[in-house]
């Protein structure tokens, strides 16, 4: 799980654009670290998997809210 990934690899793995992943890294939504002596970032695989899990749980919560609202015939 300590496998280091580049932002490009993270973007491909998550199916997101490279600029969006860069913003997530900059906002610390996904933890990253810089290689000593340069500005290149690396991301731990475990952190990517944790982000992906949080994202999926959030999406599931949104789906559940929409289902309840539809069942109750509430505008959403």
Name the descriptors.
76 residues; mainly alpha; Multidrug-efflux Transporter Regulator, Chain: A, Domain 2; three-stranded antiparallel sheet
Q: Which secondary structure elements does this structure contain, and how are they paired or packed?
A:
Blueprint: E1 4-5, H1 7-14, H2 18-26, E2 33-34, E3 41-44, H3 45-71
Antiparallel strand pairs: 1-3, 2-3
Helix pairs in contact: 1-2
Task: Please tell me about this protein's structure.
The chain is mainly α. It has one domain: Multidrug-efflux Transporter Regulator, Chain: A, Domain 2, CATH 1.10.1660.10. The chain is built from three helices and three strands, in the order E-H-H-E-E-H. The protein has a three-stranded antiparallel sheet. A hairpin with a 6-residue loop joins strand 2 and strand 3. The mean pLDDT is 91.
CATH class, named: Mainly Alpha
> And the CATH topology?
Multidrug-efflux Transporter Regulator, Chain: A, Domain 2
List the secondary-structure elements in sequence, H or E.
Answer: EHHEEH
Strand order of the largest sheet: 1-3-2
Q: Total number of helical segments?
A: 3
Unreliable sequence segments: none
Number of domain modules: 1
- CATH architecture designation: Orthogonal Bundle
Summarize the structure.
With 76 residues, the chain is mainly alpha-helical. The protein contains three helices and three strands; from the N terminus they run βααββα. The protein is elongated, with a radius of gyration of 16 Å.
């Amino acid at each position: 799980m300590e496998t280091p990934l580049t932002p490009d690899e993270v973007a491909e793995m998550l199916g997101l654009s490279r600029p969006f992943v860069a913003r997530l890294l900059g906002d610390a939504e996904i933890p990253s670290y810089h290689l000593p002596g340069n500005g290149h970032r690396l991301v731990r695989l475990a952190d990517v998997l944790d982000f992906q899990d949080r994202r999926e749980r959030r999406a599931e919560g949104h789906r559940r809210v929409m289902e309840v609202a539809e069942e109750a015939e509430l505008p959403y």
